[in-house]
Amino acid sequence: MQKWVLRMMMTPLVVLGLSGLAFAETQNVKVSGSIDAYSFYRTNFDLLDNNDAGVVPVTAAVPSQSHTGTVAQRSESDNFFMSITQVEVAADMTDNVSTVINLINQRDWNAEPLDGTGVPSAANQGNNEFDILLDLAYVQMKEIFYAPLTLTIGRQDLLFGRGFIIGWNPQDPQSLFQADEFTQIQSFDAIRATLDFNPWTIDFVYSKLDENSTNAENDRDLYITNVNYKFAEYNAVAEGYYVGEVDKGTLSTAGTDGTNNSAGTKDNDTHTLGGRVQFDPISQITLGGELAYQFGDYRAGKAATAAFPPARDRDAWGADLFGEYRWDNTWKPMLGLQYVYLDGETDLSAASTQSYSSWNGSFRGPIYGWYHDYKEVYWATSAPNDQAAGQNQQHISVYGTLQPMEDLKLTANYWYFWAVDDMHTTTSNPNTSVLSDGIGHEIDLAAIYSYTEDVTFTFMADWFIPGDLYSSPNDATATQLVSEVKVVF
Q1: How far apart are CA 369 and CA 342, in angstroms?
Q2: Among 417, 330, 324, residue whose Cα is nearest residue 368
Q3: Alpha carbon distance 440, 281 (integer Å)
Q4: Going from the N-terminus, what domains does the chain have, and what CATH number goes with each?
Q5: Which of these, 367, 461, 445, lies nearest to 402 by C-alpha position?
Q6: Beta carbons of 253 and 263 less than 8 angstroms apart
Q7: Region 381-401: what's the mean pLDDT?
Q8: Which of residues 51 and 403 earns the better pLDDT score?
Q9: Which residue has the higher pLDDT, 256 or 334?
Q10: Residues forming a β-bridge with 426
Q11: Average pLDDT of the chain?
Q12: What sign for the dihedral angle of Cα 218, 219, 220, 226?
């Protein structure tokens, strides 16, 4: 009887002791998250008025003004709601080890996602609308093996400098919402080693962009080396980098080369070398500049049974120059001026063998116009000769902010875009007529109201006015109105 009582008394103590051992390595756990609710109104995103279409996916055909038959969108505008919900758990453990897991749900409110032809399709939605997706999942080990070394392994965000080369990897894995540019899944599956030799910081990154099958000959990989130096004065920083996108997957050959022979692996690689400087000559002024050069191999896409087009040498430049002035005033006014150059290519014919100078900005972070930056990337325009944004463009932007109240911030941005190289009436034939280089103007306005420290209301209004590149009737003004309420906990 005494032994039975002793066992009953000892069992809880043993369980508590084992629990203490199991959780002793976790020093601190933080749970955070956010809820974003958006309302969208968009009209004439296809730049064609009176054709019963507001926003047309880039994979779909834009209906004409004289279309016949059933059209998916029987309105000149799109109006819908979207929510993004996130929960993040961060845990600090002993020996400078920490982990982060971020779970996310992104969805339009009870909408039917568009299929590949721009038609709402209930079948596409299935039961995925309320699924929880994995955004972040990484472990970080500081001072591992060597005091200045930090190792981060897993699904993580990557941002270098101002994001001119690396800062964004947008994903909508289940195609559950239409405003893909607002996605908050921007992470990379990566291994990052950071050496902190203050004031020097050196980063080495390997990221698996696309595994396809486990065969190494159809992968898409990213390699990054970034060296950053922070000066003791003028809030100055300088950095240099190499970014290599080794792409064996986009043009992997599931078929023949046109002569019933296996074509093998064809690379489509982009290697980027660049540097950035930024400093404050006085406390109210910030000046900066970035220059990058791309080289490598480029091949146009092909059908499964068609011969591969010839390889072309990449030869492209990108540049970013900016300056900002901040007034010493209670309203905190700021005015900025920026010039951005993203190289372009005149000869887009598949048979060309000349160097290919179109800029590859797959992972660029900054947004150059809430409409223009996604033109022919996420949505299609009615102009048959249009090119995707992010290459063959340069722009000047004037932007500013104002804070008339402690909890109210106003922002404004104006862009003027024009082409770097000539565009032609037939994009694959450089011998056709040359088009105007005036792409257009964009005005983006926003008001951000902080209701509390945790709740923010934002209203955005954006207009894109097509330039002389677009001719009637493919030159209607695109408009977007976005309202957002964001709660952070």
Answers
A1: 15
A2: 417
A3: 34
A4: 2-25+38-488 (2.40.160.100)
A5: 445
A6: yes
A7: 93
A8: 403
A9: 334
A10: none
A11: 86
A12: negative
pLDDT in tens, 405-462: 999 999 999 999 999 988 876 766 666 677 889 999 999 999 999 999 999 999 999 9
Distances, alpha carbon 326 to alpha carbons 139, 176, 286, 322, 329, in Å: 39, 41, 9, 14, 9
The residue whose two tokens read 């690396």 is 166
Q: What is the pLDDT of residues 142-194, one digit of tens each?
A: 999 999 999 999 999 999 999 999 999 998 877 778 899 999 999 999 999 99
Cβ count within 10 A of residue 459: 14
Answer yes or no: is pLDDT of 18 > 50. no
As given in the structure block, the two tokens for residue 489 are 């906990």
User: What pLDDT is stored for residue 232 in this prediction?
Assistant: 96
The residue-averaged pLDDT of 43-57 equals: 88
Four-point Cα dihedral 74, 75, 79, 80, nearest 10? 10
**Smallest Cα–Cα separation from 332: which of 236, 487, 448?**
448
SS3 readout for the chain: CHHHHHHHHHHHHHHHHHHHHHHCCEEEEEEEEEEEEEEEEEECCCCCCCCCCCCCECCCCCCCCCCCCCCCCCCCEEEEEEEEEEEEEEEEECCCEEEEEEEEEEEECCCCCECCCCCECHHHHCCCCCCCEEEEEEEEEECCCCCCEEEEEEEECCCCCCCCCCCCCCCCCCCCCCCHHHCCCCCEEEEEEEEEECCEEEEEEEEEEECCCCCHHHCEEEEEEEEEEECCCCCCEEEEEEEEEEECCCCCCCCCCCCCCCCCCCCCCEEEEEEEEEECCCCCEEEEEEEEEEEEEECCCCCCCCCCCCCEEEEEEEEEEEEEEECCCCCCCEEEEEEEEECCCCCCCCCCCCCECCCCCCCCCCCCCCCHHHECCCECCCCCCCCCCCCCEEEEEEEEEEEEECCEEEEEEEEEEECCCCCECCCCCCCCCECCCEEEEEEEEEEEEECCCCEEEEEEEEEEEECCCCCCCCCCCEEEEEEEEEEEC
